[in-house]
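Entry type: protein chain
Record version: 2
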Amino acid sequence: MKKLIFTATIALTAFAAQANDLVQHKNNKPATFANADVQVINFWAAWCAPCRKEMPDMSKWYAKTGKKQKVEMVGIALDTQENVNKFLREVPVKYPIWRYTGTNSRQMMKSFGNTVGGLPFTVVRAPKCGHEGRILGELTYEILDAAVKRAQTACKK
């Protein structure tokens, strides 16, 4: 039990340090997660072909389903402000975009459970009940919808 508490404390400390390096893309203000029942956190970069491919489906899902269900969804760009601006002009999205401004994106992604460091990477979590699902690779509308439903169901048990 002590080991579990110690591990959880380390993870939360690492997460808090990494969260200081997250800013809202539109205004460069610090970004913080809301207290939503379900959160979808997608890590991406403008140079990542699967990331570029999945974002229209994710945006469509958020506009049609996620907003109505009060799911918090953010895309965290591991890229420069200029690259993100250019990408979003070409592929506008309906959900908030944040940027990671720190110096160790691999370590930051590890704090979210991405041990490989690959992109795209998505975490679907329900913080209130401790559910957390991770998806490495390209999402589709259907995969995202199923992952959110699993998180919602986990909290009803």
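Comment: Residues 1-17 have pLDDT under 50 and may be disordered.
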